[in-house]
Amino acid sequence: MIDPTAAPPKARRRKVTRESTLQALPWLAPALLLIGGVVVYPAGYMFYTSFRDISRFGTDLGWAGWDNYGKVFALGHLPRVFLNTAVWVVGVVLISVLVSLVLAQFLNKTFPGRTVVRLAVIVPWAASVVMTSTIFVYGLDPFYGVINQFLVDTGVMAQPYGFLKNPVSGFLSSAAVAVFVSVPFTTFVILAGLQTVPGDVLEAAQIDGATKAQTYWRVVFPMLRPALAVAALINVINVFNSLPILRTMTGAIPGYDADTTTTLTFKIIQGDRQIDTASALSVINFLVVLIVIAFYLRIVRPMREV
Amino acid sequence: MRRVIKAAAIATAATLGLVACGGGSDSGAGGNTELELMVPSYGDKTKPYWEDLVKAFEAKNPTIKVKLEVQSWDDIYKVLDTKIQGQKAPDILELDSAGPAYGKEGLLFKADEIVSPATLADVVPAFVQSAAIDGTAYGVPTVASTRALFYNKELFAKAGIAAPPKTWDELLDSAKKISALGDGVSGYGMPLGNEEAQGETSIWAYGAGASWGDGSKITVDTPQATEALTFMKKMIDEKATQADPGATNRTPLINVFIQGKIGMITGLPPVVGQIKEKNPALQWAIAPSPTKDGKPATLGVADYFVGFKKDGKKQEAIRKFLDFFYEKDNYVKFNDNEGFIPATKSGGEAAAAKPELKEFIDALPGAKFYPATNPAWSTASGAFKQLVGQIQTKPAPDVLKEIQAKVDAGG
Amino acid sequence: MSTLTEAPPALSGSRAPRPTKPTRRRWDLTAIGGVIALIFLAPYLIMLSGAFKSRPEILKVPPTYLPAEWHPENFLTMWGTPETPLPSNLWSTVVISIGGTLLALLAAVPAAYFTARHNFRLKMPFLLLVLITQMLQPTVLASGLFREFVTLELNDTYLSMILVNAAFNLSFAVWIMHSFFSAVPKEIEEAAWLDGCSRLDSMRRIMLPLVWPGIVTTVVFTFIACWNEFAASLILLPTDTNQPLTVALTKFVGQYDSAWQYVFAVSIIGILPVVILFALIEKRLVAGLTAGGVK
């Protein structure tokens, strides 16, 4: 604004900015109303509860200060649970994304029966996660589990194994199921992203003599970036807060060696009946996700300006 | 603030042309009372029973409407806690011993306020007292059960065992013999997964003469309990149990017994019906729970009705409904459906005629209940469910200490 | 869709005309595709097989792969069990899912479009606020939601769950639509404005067809999330006829014994509508493909 001749595009942009803030309101209003009306109250209530002393029957006994947070940090198994959470999120999201990139590339090719394969891939996503976990619990049972029986019948194992009976194999089995249910969604987002890659760009690349790998990494992948970044972001949040898989599959395992912060929150509500401590842990969990996502946004920049 | 949120929510909905559906409560009309009744589901006969009962009751009492809500045992605590926190507790609730414990916080009517004296007099006093808090009873028992040892006669014959074990040592010996048969067969089924670990543990601990404390203090790391858990660990270490007892839940394990792959398991009355339905060919029998030295002791469990006080206006309606439920025919039918032992004298007479319930009724005098009168028991019970399975890998005293620490922290 | 007429539908997908090679390779791909399909379907085949078994057979030791006795009537009797009014449950799920999806879309599309096209001071704060809604754990939020809807006298209504589903899926809808709107070059739209299209017109005629894959993705994602929502429905909908399928399933789980054949059969029925929706919409995805490559 000081020197109008210096940078005209920048100046114009700034002007647009000021006007737009008011203009934005009608466009954003429905979303803001929904968030304000439905999300803000329970979130605020959770925050409030984390500073209250709530009896195990739900009676509010008054102000608790930081006691609930103190209780959370006094839990001896907290480091292990945080470590599990990190392994869980990073592992599941990374593997899901890698598998999905390959799968989406495959499903983008044309071949007879592609629609059927696409439909089959969508099924684990369409099914409720609780049911998918339940069927794995049922299938992996050492006595009446079909999967165990199958592995024995095909000679892979000599005798049935209790996959969900110890923390390590239970945790890994759950992670595998988490990947299994995350892949369809991720694949689908990437597939949708692949549709936006114009065919003539690919042709141009081929004419220029680019190899397949070069075409993929230099042309296709950069165009996938926005969709992929959002898909990974949503995955990180969902996997972080995923309760049903671990609760269903490792819930019977004693101790906390297979817990993430989310399942620990659940155990504090259900087992210890301390909704106040659970709220505190939930607030902490929320802050951790917030920090992780903030880093993610800084590094990956899924919202970089066009 | 509330009005703003409400206006916003309605505006959002209205602009988009959405219509609210579902039940609005029309309880305003001329002195009508609406009772909210929340019950857990024992099985597929539970809901039809309550629907019929409510219909019959409403026909007799046209001014009272009963709104029934049936929840699975998995979900009922969560739904209930949310409702209580939101000041929307049901009027009548059926629950395990956690129900009467709400009396501690003054949320409940006393037992003699929600049923007539005649009804209360018919209930076996031991059951009423089992859930009394500081001498005051808040819950009226609905169903009762004790635990006993189910055993597979065929496997016993194969392993050359003449009679069911009475003591722990005999149990270990018999279980090892059966495990030695091979072919995926286990001697004793020990479910220490989170579903019902406190039940299995209590039977063992009570068998060593332990108790979990009283109305004022919960103590779990007693010498007797340590002895019991140590012996349980011995059973596991010597491969007398199924693999991985620490993470095995009760319901699936009972099923494995029904399928003939387990020699002995602790069970309760409804298992009788399950065997008849799923594997009638099974050669089975029931014996008293083995104890350390053979002295009879086992776990007794009851579920209860409680009435939430709230503003106190619905007391009369609650009493009418519960008295109706405890009428002999209605009540006996309820217990017949679910396969439990009735907790009333008149119901007990009817049940005594059934041979399959005999072992369980015989066990009643020696049965010990959970110290549910102490609200801290719910913490202890939760801690058992989450932690006791660790005896598979950790020393028993350490595990008990860890549980005790949870109980103490929960206050 | 106007775009369908612009591009020859027959060519959708294979743009480079290389006549001989594809026919040979295609069937290899079909074989690989078959294996992939089998992997993704395997657990649900176990479920399907279980749905045809009798109650005793489901928990047999050792297990059977296929039912020894077939009980197709499970798929009929489940509609009339005493445990739960399944036809009402299916209806509730349909109403709540369609309502939630539409509401989320209606709220998200304008916001996503505007944030993708304009810079304004509160843009990042807005997008972050939307994202934050996704980070809260439903388990702990349920009690706050219950209190809120009780005070609003909206508990036990479809509307409550439509609002909850729309609000908690908004972030995905906004962010994914934002990324798709951003990917459309500004020039296309500006050209339309020069031709005299109003902003709404250009959105309807130019933008929406171009971001169609994004809309499809959003609809599928939101619909599936609504369809499978459990934690809030359990708390907010106490009346059995209002409850969705996910809550209805728990009614078959007894204290000591569960009707697994019904749990499995209902789950299968629950998966089908989503797969059918996807089958219908998958063609639109191809339509979007041609639209994306128009200019």
Key features?
heterotrimer, B: 411 residues, alpha/beta, D-Maltodextrin-Binding Protein, domain 2, 2 domains, seven-stranded mixed β-sheet, four-stranded mixed β-sheet, 13 strands, 16% strand, disordered N terminus, C: 295 residues, mainly alpha, MetI-like fold, 14 helices, 0% strand, signal (chain B), SBP (chain B), Extracellular solute-binding protein (chain B), Bact_solute-bd_prot1 (chain B)
List the helices and strands and how they pair.
The complex is a heterotrimer of chains A (306), B (411) and C (295).
Chain A (H helix, E strand, L loop, with lengths): L7 H42 L2 E3 L5 E4 L3 H8 L3 H30 L6 H13 L2 H12 L5 H8 L13 H29 L3 H9 L4 H29 L3 H7 L10 H10 L4 H26 L6
Antiparallel strand pairs in A: 1-2
Chain B lengths: L1 H14 L17 E8 L5 H15 L3 E8 L1 H13 L6 E4 L2 H4 L9 H4 L2 H6 L2 H6 L1 E2 L2 E2 L2 E7 L1 E5 H6 L9 H12 L6 E4 L7 H11 L15 H15 L12 H9 L3 E6 L2 H9 L5 E4 L10 E10 L7 H11 L2 H11 L2 E2 L2 H8 L5 H5 L4 E3 L7 H11 L8 H15 L1
Parallel strand pairs in B: 1-2, 1-3, 8-9, 11-13
Antiparallel strand pairs in B: 3-11, 4-5, 6-11, 6-12, 7-9, 7-10
Helix pairs in contact in B: 10-11, 15-16, 18-19
Chain C lengths: L1 H5 L14 H31 L3 H4 L15 H4 L8 H32 L5 H10 L5 H14 L6 H26 L2 H9 L4 H12 L1 H16 L3 H6 L8 H6 L9 H33 L3
Helix pairs in contact in C: 2-14, 5-8, 5-11, 6-8, 8-11, 9-10, 11-14
